[in-house]
Amino acid sequence: xxxxxxxxxxxxxxxxxxxxxxxxxxxxxxxxxxxxxxxxxxxxxxxxxxxxxxxxxxxxxxxxxxxxxxxxxxxxxxxxxxxxxxxxxxxxxxxxxxxxxxxxxxxxxxxxxxxxxxxxxxxxxxxxx
Length: 129
What we know:
Blueprint: H1 9-31, H2 38-47, H3 54-64, E1 104-108, E2 111-113, E3 116-118, E4 121-125
Antiparallel strand pairs: 1-4, 2-3
């Protein structure tokens, strides 16, 4: 086969093993939701018994156009260290009502529109749920 393709036998074996390694690498990369980079993929592949260097994995990822996505950082959305008064928790997570119109719940949502912020709100009787 090497003679037909006009390649050396060693070069042909390296080419075949490289393509197998690339498919394993691509499968691992997709399985990690494109979040694993070369260091982590190298550890995973070597734990399976394959011998790969990190430089080899990095080069293969570049050739295939694989790039790990950075994890999004946590961003606090609530500032709870304010000095403003906070409403008391009268329900204390007990949402079961014995009779109608005893417990009411509400929610406010802010939506960004072309005209500015819109805040639709809902109020409902908890026994009707």
